[in-house]
Structure formats: structure tokens, C-alpha cells
Amino acid sequence: MRLKEGLKREEPDGNLEYKLKLVEVPPERLEELASQLKYRLEEGMGEAIYELGVTDEGEVLGLDSRDLEETLKTLAAAAEKVGAKTTLIRKIHGKMGVAAEVLIRRTKEAESFPIWLYIPVLGNVDSGKSSLVSVLVSGELDDGNGSAMMKVARYLHEIKSRRTSSISSHPLGFDDHGETVNYRLASPFDEAEIFLNSSKIVDFVDLGGHERYFKTTLKGIMGHHPDYCLITVAANTGIKPMTIEHLKVVVGLRLPMVFVVTKIDMIPQKVGKVVKDISGLVKLPKINAVPFQVKSVDDAVVAAKIMPSGRVAPIFTVSNVTGEGLDLLRVFLNLLPPRTRWREQVNRSFLSYVDDIFNVKGV
């Protein structure tokens, strides 16, 4: 639901909090706000969303510029007390002024382990999965001839065939304010540096799309406890049989899905049809999701907030060559909440998958 259309009544649980205004707050009230914020952060596993200028009933009233500025400062002060930072996501006009949506995220200093999401990347062969992962993680666009894919390929035969046949993971890190950490590192693929400098990490699991590697793909999905799944569909080929097979796996595992239409620069006139085909596919009875094409930052924010329900299937249209649509996808990934409560998994039996076995001669 869009902010300007109103929100549902505030829930006592969860990481979403409404505040009409926080003006002239005394010290004792600030402590109460910090305590409440700490609870919301725990509910969101390190992240919380605050709607400012909104009543507890979800009515978007808004504030004048002075009150909004003071409310933002008060919220930032409360966040600092619990080791978190605030980031303004967007503003919207309410009935009486401007309302604001704010992301609050625990800092790296306050939380030793970053917020972590696993997202397997699925799709038919040659749909641009590896290229998309490479472009998102490195920040460098593809040249249209496989340069991006080569950066994430693990084996020589993958580079030669331009097809992924193995399982590889590539983290995309975000800092306290939602800025991409990878892009300011000497090597955007340096996992250690990404971990040390990120408050949130989206770990892409790059998988093969050819039917020959379907078992390996299944292993990659099952072995990473995914939060969501990202399915790529190339604009020049559309939905293929392996796309359907991958979708069946995602539905069987009851994972929320995100669709990314790639290669929109090649045949722009077919993009609309591909989006329509995906929309029809996710409406089928056994899937029963609501297709939602993301066309703006507001759409990306809304899609990220409602993704954990699994009822919505966002559709992005991007080009790894021109960069079109990638900014919206980054906004979405930055705001995407984790679904796995890792702290609750600590006491469970340990299970580890062996991905590769090496026999090095002479050792």
C-alpha cells in the first residue's frame, strides 16, 4: 500500500512504528523512545521502519517543515542511544503537511554480525543471471559480450562456454545509511572487507540455468537457507521451460520470489509482453501471487516492505549494459528485510554441505 493512500493500524509487534511527531521531547521521554526503538530493531533483526507524521490508526497527516526536521533529529538521537543510524527513505504529502519514512539500522560497531540475507539467483540459461550478480556486486556494467559474467565465473570452461555450471556466492554489502560498500573497496569481490565494513549483506547465490546442471542448482538452493529467490527472464527469449522448473522449486519451498527482466536494451518492444507473461504466470492458482511491476523508488520501497508475506511478486526491468533499472533494484535490496531469525537457529543441530573436494598432487 502506498503511504499517501494511508496505512493499516499500527501493530504492537514487528519492526514498523508510527509517530505523529516528536517535538520538544524531554530526556526521560527520549529514553522511552530509545527503549521502544530497541524493541522494534529486535523485531526487525537489526532494522526498523518509522513512519513520521502518521497516527496510530495509519492516517497520514504530515507535519510542517519545522516539526518534521525536529522529529527527524529526535529520532536520530534515540537511534544513537541504541547504536543505530537513521536514513530518510522518502517524503510524501499528507493531509496537513509532509510525512516521512525512515529506515533505522544498527551500526556495524553496535552489532558485530551484519544483517544477512541469502538470495539464490535462478533462471533459464543465457538469461543474464551471472551478469546481473556481477554488475550489482561490482558496480561495473557489462560490455554486452560477457565481461561481467567472467568476473564471477569459477572455472575456465564457464568462461569459454559463457554458462555457469557451479555454485558460487557473491555478497553485496550496505552500510548504516544504505550506501553500497562494495563500490568503495579496492576489490568489490573481497568478501572479508565487505563483511568488516557492512551493516547488511545480501548474499547472492549464483546458480546454473541449463537443465544439465539442475541437480547442482537444487543443491545451491537447499544448502543456503534462502530468504528470497530472484528469477531472471531475458527480454529477448521470454519465459522458457527451465524458468517454469525453477519457479516450481521456489513455490514448493514457499519462498517469496522476485522477477528481473534482463536485456531490455536488446528488444525494448518485447519487454511489455514479457512482463505481461510473468504477471499471468504468478497469478496461476498454485502460485497465487500479485504481480507488481516496480517503476519508481516508491514502488521499490513498497515492494520491499511487503515481500516477507510472499503474496507479492515484484517485477524489475533492467539492463546490465546500460544500467537502466539497476538503481531501483539496489534500493529494493537495501530495504529488503531478512526472513531467517538466525539467533533462533543457534541451538539447532549443525549441518554443513561439502561443495567441492580437491586432491592436490604433492601435498
Structural features, described:
The chain is of the alpha/beta class. It folds into 2 domains: about 5-105, top7, de novo designed protein (2-Layer Sandwich), CATH 3.30.1710; about 115-340, P-loop containing nucleotide triphosphate hydrolases (Rossmann fold, 3-Layer(aba) Sandwich). The protein has 12 helices and 11 strands. It has a 7-stranded mixed β-sheet with strand order 6-7-5-8-9-11-10, with helices on both faces. Strand 10, helix 10 and strand 11 (about 310-315) form a beta-alpha-beta unit. Helix 1 crosses helix 2. The mean pLDDT is about 90.
Number of DSSP strand runs: 11
Tell me the helix content: 25-40%
Give the name of the CATH architecture of the largest domain: 3-Layer(aba) Sandwich
The chain-level structural class is alpha/beta
Task: Tell me the CATH topology of the largest domain.
Answer: Rossmann fold
What Rg do the Cα atoms give? 21 Å
The CATH homologous superfamily of the largest domain is termed: P-loop containing nucleotide triphosphate hydrolases
Summarize the topology.
Elements: E1 16-19, H1 27-43, E2 47-52, H2 65-81, E3 84-93, E4 98-106, E5 115-123, H3 129-138, H4 147-152, H5 156-161, E6 168-174, H6 191-197, E7 200-206, H7 214-222, E8 229-234, H8 241-252, E9 257-262, H9 271-282, E10 290-293, H10 297-306, E11 312-317, H11 326-335, H12 342-345
Parallel strand pairs: 1-2, 5-7, 5-8, 8-9, 9-11, 10-11
Antiparallel strand pairs: 2-4, 3-4, 6-7
Helix pairs in contact: 1-2, 10-11
